[in-house]
Write a structure and sequence with these properties.
Blueprint: E1 2-3, H1 11-14, E2 20-28, E3 36-41, E4 51-58, E5 63-70, H2 77-88, E6 91-92, H3 102-117, E7 122-128
Antiparallel strand pairs: 1-6, 2-3, 2-7, 3-4, 4-5
Length: about 130
């Protein structure tokens, strides 16, 4: 995995507060820090509308964020939007997660948390609207 964190300006366009759908936070067991947060927005919630994702990443000495979106039919849009958001935040994953579902998303977020903190034990917290 390659991480070169940057602060992308597309978070502003991908953050749709009225369409908040869910959030996945990765929290360190040892100190309660939250190095990775991913939020998902689905304004239409009808399956045909775009799914938006924003990711915020805080490492020991760096901070980055990015946004992404996915549209169309026939695949897992949340994971595709998250992949786009991580990419715009400067994270290059070794394996693609777009269209691969919730487990791939959680594993990717855990891998990012491990990479930016060097820690190994985390809680995965999920909230839904």
């Amino acid at each position: 995995m390659k991480i070169d964190l940057k602060q992308s300006s597309n978070v502003r366009t991908c953050r749709k507060e009225k369409g908040f759908y869910r959030q996945i936070s990765i929290m360190c067991v040892s100190d309660g820090a939250v190095p990775v947060i991913a939020r998902f927005y689905w304004p239409g919630r009808d399956g045909a509308s775009n799914c938006y994702a924003c990711a915020w990443i805080r490492g020991d000495d760096a901070f980055g964020h990015g946004g992404g979106k996915a549209g169309g039919y026939g695949y897992h849009k949340e994971s595709a939007a998250l992949s786009d958001a991580l990419d715009s935040a400067g994270v290059t994953l070794p394996d693609p997660i777009d269209g691969r579902g919730g487990m791939a998303m959680r594993e990717a977020l855990l891998a990012v948390a491990r990479a930016v903190t060097g820690k190994r034990k985390f809680y995965v917290l999920e909230a839904h609207a």
